[in-house]
Q: What sequence folds into this?
């Protein structure tokens, strides 16, 4: 009887550990894991759907990061010590830097995926390769945006 509370604690702790979910991958990555399992038509639809979904995640993260960058810029300008920093005088703006970075990424991503698609020489795999590339590029950008946001909020 005196071990009953200890046993109860151990059982509760074990069940909480067993029920805990592992870290989640971005939803588009979970979607694309099995795209190669079916026909070419199914693979193309699967990768295209994953790419659209992951691009939506990138767009949402970018907008959130843009709001956070604007808040950072405003806080720098409002702080007399920070406002006198030489970088601020040279036009430091995380908001503008993020916009430039995103535009460059879009251009790079489109060019890279066009290249990868063309390795199929216009064959039936072209669209699959392009969609898979866009999904991969989007997931990579999502990681970059999340890391940049953490830097801006430190």
A:
């Amino acid at each position: 009887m005196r071990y009953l509370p200890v046993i109860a604690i151990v059982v509760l702790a074990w069940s909480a550990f067993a029920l805990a979910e592992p870290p989640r991958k971005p939803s588009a990555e979970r979607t694309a894991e099995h795209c190669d399992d079916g026909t070419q038509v199914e693979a193309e639809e699967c990768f295209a759907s994953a790419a659209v979904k992951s691009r939506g995640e990138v767009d949402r993260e970018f907008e959130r990061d843009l709001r956070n960058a604007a808040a950072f810029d405003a806080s720098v300008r409002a702080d007399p010590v920070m406002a006198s920093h030489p970088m601020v005088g040279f036009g430091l703006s995380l908001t503008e830097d993020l916009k430039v970075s995103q535009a460059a990424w879009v251009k790079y991503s489109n060019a890279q995926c066009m290249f990868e698609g063309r390795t199929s020489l216009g064959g039936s795999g072209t669209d699959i390769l392009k969609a898979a590339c866009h999904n991969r590029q989007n997931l990579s950008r999502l990681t970059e945006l999340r890391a940049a946001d953490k830097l801006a909020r430190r």
